[in-house]
Write a structure and sequence with these properties.
about 260 residues; mainly alpha; about 70% helix
């Protein structure tokens, strides 16, 4: 076959360059953005037809979701919930919140694919519940930016999903009802998600700690009583969660 220059989406390539150069020349002084620049830049030098691009996108979504199941599964069994903001398998709650946000976005994309392909309503409901579960995990991190992004993504997805349908009758009502259903699911599942993260590692397994956490006195390094005061409590979580939201509200009001 005759060799030819690969085609690329110039608009997305330009946007990607701006984002990557911003990471490279930011104040973090790390080298990994340079590696990402070359690694992911290769995708823009590869020709994909419509079927290959769809398969790549679908495989990426599946990989993110399966990765979440594995990583969060390990955290559920071996990482004690002994910090005010849940860190999961990470050492930082903000990184954990970003992980949940990425997975939440992947689930919304899968939900959209199911809707577009006319999958059974059971699968679509399963995706909807999955998105609510990820919001619950995000709430445990008390990461305000991540939570707001999840809520925004959920609303944006429901709007796009509704307005791409052939029939747009009662569109606003359908969006509100579906958003309310997701919100109600979050309210029901939040205590369940909290209890799983709090009690499973405390009841069954010796906690797993990172090397950087070994010297932290407030971390639980060994099997201990399930009611050890170092574990997070539901009352403390609720107080901290609404306290953080209150700080965000006060900040917005001051700027206004």
């Amino acid at each position: 076959d005759e060799k030819k220059l690969p085609k690329m989406n110039r608009s997305f390539f330009a946007l990607w360059c701006v984002m990557m150069f911003g990471m490279i020349f930011s104040k973090n002084e790390r080298l990994w953005p340079v590696l990402f620049f070359f690694c992911f830049g290769c995708f823009y030098l590869t020709d994909f037809n419509k079927e290959e691009r769809s398969a790549l996108f679908r495989g990426g979504l599946n990989g993110i979701i399966v990765g979440f199941i594995i990583v969060q599964g390990i955290a559920t069994f071996y990482r004690a919930y002994d910090e005010l903001r849940y860190v999961g398998m990470y050492c930082n709650s903000n990184m954990n919140a970003l992980f949940y946000l990425m997975t939440h976005t992947a689930i919304l994309c899968k939900w959209y694919q199911m809707q577009k392909e006319g999958k059974a309503i059971g699968w679509r409901c399963f995706a909807a519940v999955g998105s609510a579960i990820l919001i619950c995990y995000g709430m445990l991190t008390i990461g305000r930016t991540a939570i707001l992004c999840m809520v925004f993504d959920e609303i944006l997805f429901l709007c796009i999903n509704q307005y791409t349908k052939q029939s747009r009758r009662f569109a606003i009502l359908n969006i509100v009802l579906r958003l309310a259903a997701v919100g109600l699911t979050c309210a029901i599942l939040l205590p369940v998600v909290f209890s799983v993260c709090r009690y499973v590692p405390a009841h069954f397994y010796t906690p797993l700690t990172m090397p950087t956490e070994q010297e932290l006195g407030y971390k639980i390094h060994e099997s201990t009583e399930i009611d050890d005061p170092r574990y997070m409590t539901w009352e403390r979580f609720i107080e901290l969660f609404f306290g953080r939201l209150g700080e965000l509200k006060d900040s917005v009001e001051k700027q206004a």
